[in-house]
Design a protein that fits this description.
The structure is a homodimer.
Chain A lengths: L2 H17 L2 H10 L2 H9 L3 H10 L3 H10 L2 H9 L3 H9 L3 H10 L2 H10 L2 H11 L6 H4 L5 E4 L4 H10 L9 E5 L5 E6 H6 L6 H4 L7 E2 L4 H10 L4 E5 L5 E6 H19 L12 H28 L1 H6 L7 H25 L7 H31 L2 H31 L4 H29 L2
Parallel strand pairs in A: 1-2, 4-5
Antiparallel strand pairs in A: 2-3, 5-6
Helix pairs in contact in A: 1-2, 1-3, 3-5, 5-7, 7-9, 8-10, 15-16, 16-22, 17-22, 19-20, 19-21, 19-22, 20-21, 21-22
Chain lengths: 450, 450
Amino acid sequence: MPSDRNRILVESIKRLLRRGATSHLGKIVNKTHAADLSVVFRSLSLTEQRKLFTMISDVEQKGVLFSELDEDTFQDLIEGMKIEDIVRILESMPADDVADIIGRLPEDISKTILDKMKTAESEEVEGLLRYDDETAGGIMVPDFIALKEDNTARAAIESLQKEHSDVEMPFYLYVVDEYGKLVGVSSLRQLVVVPPDTPLKDFMATDVFSVQTDMDQEEVAKIVARYDILAVPVVDGTNRLVGIVTVDDVIDIIRKEATEDILRMAGAGEEFVETKSILKSTRIRLPWLFASCIGGILAFFIIGKFESSLLKFTYLAAFIPVIMGMGGNIGTQSSTIVVRGLATGRLHARDLWSVVLKELTIGVILGLVYGLLIGSVAQFRYSTLALAISVALAVVSSMSIAALVGSLVPMGFARVNIDPAVATGPFVTTAIDIISVLFYFVIATTLLGI
Amino acid sequence: MPSDRNRILVESIKRLLRRGATSHLGKIVNKTHAADLSVVFRSLSLTEQRKLFTMISDVEQKGVLFSELDEDTFQDLIEGMKIEDIVRILESMPADDVADIIGRLPEDISKTILDKMKTAESEEVEGLLRYDDETAGGIMVPDFIALKEDNTARAAIESLQKEHSDVEMPFYLYVVDEYGKLVGVSSLRQLVVVPPDTPLKDFMATDVFSVQTDMDQEEVAKIVARYDILAVPVVDGTNRLVGIVTVDDVIDIIRKEATEDILRMAGAGEEFVETKSILKSTRIRLPWLFASCIGGILAFFIIGKFESSLLKFTYLAAFIPVIMGMGGNIGTQSSTIVVRGLATGRLHARDLWSVVLKELTIGVILGLVYGLLIGSVAQFRYSTLALAISVALAVVSSMSIAALVGSLVPMGFARVNIDPAVATGPFVTTAIDIISVLFYFVIATTLLGI
């Protein structure tokens, strides 16, 4: 839905809420897709949210809304609800979404809910809860179509008509042997096209991609994206089929991981904070700025050490911003390219030295270009060759080191399996600031003989 | 394929290439998925790439490889090929991928290719080329299943068996009226489940999402992602069904747009440059650094104006890094949050003032916290209250302005439909640097009475 239509929706719902036009409101709410309602909810107060929520008559729509809402909004919303009502809604939802929600609730509430759910449902959910949240096991759905390899196409179609009517996305028909191990894959389309008596094993594809339950969700997403498939089967250690990860969840993962990386690199937490309260956003952003604060204070003490030189050559101070700025910007380029390259699989941690060497080379080249330029400005302004050369050399060293640090840190972190994005942003910038200032003053005092 | 397996593949292919073990190599190449081959190609020289490419026997695999290769690699690869061979491969590919490739080739080559292609194929491709590359029309595939609304389920299944065998992803069956206008949607699954004589219009869903040919691809991706659908139908101005956009293309768009945003914000071009040559990467990154260079030189002239003040209070220089650093970092936080929020639909350009006000508030709060902290350090070190207050005020103003500029610029750009990411990165940082330095010196010279 384009954002214009969304705005109109938000505004008319707010107006109707003010007027208390319940029956009109009910009609709108029940005709609107839950994904759009979740956007509307962001603009409403808690009281308004509760009022609107009770107007939804379809329990499944309530379920979709549950999984679409922001975590905070959801927690606030269910606080006033009866456990029985929550349970009834959860029972209408796919098990993976329920597991997601339950996993984030306080333990006492989640236990109460699981106890009240139908045994079959709660067992499925508890089965999923055993896996780490961010692995294939944690994001898979346990509803898939598995057929025995000896079944004929006709028998397969009949079983689809009788059972499996609740399966979310029935485009792949997985084929298993007598032990439940994954041996092949077919499709509804093929069932319809082959002669009805052909057994599945005669026309199934046997080169089926599968992932293990403990594979990281980012890896799973990469596989689905790379091979353009709609779902990937998840198998346990003995190759038994236990679930599938569907492409709609993969899209969510890709978007979420990109957002996380971007925010982490900027030192702005990892979840999107703009929709949170001012106090909450402030609290999330505060600690990251502390790195930069400590770095700045360090730089301050470094410059303090050179006070006597500054006294003789006051204009040294005027070049601090340009040297810091050039280093900072090329450092951001390098670390961003490396972090994104690692995330998209374009770069690999094992290529550490070739990547760093390349970045360093680029840093030196760009350093020479801008060193010459900025040095010329210095010479033009102060006609002191030693100063101009100092400034030029400081720019070269600052930009080279920045490219080196900016690529080495994230590559190094990736090598030891720490998320390169989280470690990169503010720390790299701060380190580059300090190093740039230090090098500048050392070079300048040496060349100027002070 | 996990990256370990990929590395092993690359290494054994390189080894076999060196040894000239053609038959063994041929077996491996023809058993490997084209998506993996495209990764292998990145690590090979052009000669090796050409050798490997001729070993692929399946023309369709060559086609998949064509669409998976990086643009540069692709252009180099086809340079040595006969037009007839290229045409034969393109004819085996989906029309949207062909249009993508043709659109990027020099006009004389693309014309020759289109002339040599089968009329039906080239017409499809030329039909797609009419649409802007980054719109629904530019990314849709013209192969979809459209059935008349009066058809029965049985007739529909029969027509699927006879025609439509080349359709890429046959999970949605679109229903059109006699003029080809989209009126509903059904699924293979439903066809199999309903009584065979039911006409489509009796069981199709009529609330079908569709997009116009000129909708921006990012909007299309958002719709597919939000409603968890596998394909969205594309209609022309008269609601005639002309194509579908499938979820696998949506994934590529989401990843590409995220990469573009990240790189643009860092001033590192928009395409991933690390796999390009050093010279090319340098050329792409050079101009972005120019903004920062100009900004630095401006800051230098500003500080030059205060030379006499610096002469009296040398230690003023020592606080330049911390004030610039704090402003720069909070500015990055603000602009990153806003750019990502706009990209994911969490924020809207119409909410400009509420977002900017919130960021400004956070900037002031964080500015007060860190202003107090850094001011205290200044007081502790120099015991000059006027200096400590100047530094504190400079931090507050720098951080507040940075949060303001960092959010206002991208919000403003979004409002006038300029990509906020491209305009934000280096420009915002540079602007903040200059303003921070200027405010600092104005405040300090005023308070210190110099």
